[in-house]
Design goal:
Strand content: 15-25%
Largest sheet: 7 strands, parallel
Shape: globular
Structural class: alpha/beta
Number of helices: 8
Order of helices and strands: EHEHEHEHEHEHHHE
Distance between the termini: 53 Å
Helix content: 40-55%
């Protein structure tokens, strides 16, 4: 039996991953930050797949909360899969006007959080073997004005992924990332609610449409599977070709 911890599992990519991994046969523990009702609905979907599930309120930037999250997971068994999906989006504020508190808040959730959860995951492994997938972003390497907080966090997450992969390979713990582009989740709420905004943004995507959380979850499930056993230390982009358009027409 496989136990998976999915952070940020109450919505978006995290929720889709929780349900997809339940379909793959894992018991699921999700962390949520505020929305208990949404978290319970996800756990209901997990249980509908015949798997056990738990939802734990957790600030991933808190050592105490992360320890409690994995303690809850240990009651189902040894956690072998970790998906770091909890995150907050860019502030949309230029560096000269960004308060230190804003920058640190994003770094805490999007970078310190995966560090703490990965550390706790490895400390609790029994006998080695396991897989970690960090949900990054194309903005780890394709910056946006106003996104210094988010871009820096995701850039750091890419290097954290590579460093962990190097350190943990002798323990047969694979560590990889997934870098989505425009995905129709609450982080892109404006594009979901406003058809014109969505049309304009999708016009920049070579594939012609935004992606779905379920498509990202399918990729995550593969990266956690035995078929991906020899893959570690890489980040796979899933963006419909959006990041390929950098510098076109220059």
């Amino acid at each position: 039996m496989t136990v998976a911890v999915v952070t940020g599992g109450e919505s978006g990519i995290g929720a889709a991953c929780a349900v997809r991994l339940a379909k793959a046969g894992a018991d699921i523990v999700i962390s949520y930050h505020k929305d208990r009702q949404a978290a319970d609905e996800v756990i209901g979907q997990v249980r509908a797949e015949g798997r056990d599930g738990r939802a734990v309120k957790c600030d991933v930037a808190s050592e105490k909360d992360v320890e409690a999250l994995f303690e809850a997971a240990s009651r189902l068994g040894t956690c072998r899969w970790l998906v770091n999906s909890a995150g907050i989006n860019m502030a949309g504020i230029a560096v000269e006007r960004m308060e230190l508190e804003q920058f640190e808040r994003t770094i805490a959730t999007d970078l310190t959080g995966p560090f703490l959860t990965s550390r706790e995951f490895v400390r609790r492994l029994d006998g080695g073997g396991g897989r970690i997938v960090n949900i990054s972003s194309i903005h780890a390497f394709a910056p946006r004005a106003g996104g210094a907080d988010y871009d820096a966090a995701k850039g750091g997450l890419s290097q954290l992924t590579r460093t962990l992969a190097l350190e943990l390979a002798p323990k047969h713990v694979a560590v990889n990332g997934v870098a989505p582009g425009m995905i129709l989740t609450p982080m892109n709420e404006e594009a979901i609610e406003d058809a014109e905004v969505r049309r304009k943004r999708e016009a920049a995507i070579p594939w012609g449409r935004a992606g779905t959380a379920e498509e990202v979850a399918h990729l995550v499930a593969f990266m956690l599977s035995r078929e991906a056993d020899y893959i570690t230390g890489t980040t796979v982009t899933i963006d419909g070709g959006l990041s390929l358009t950098i510098a076109q027409g220059a």
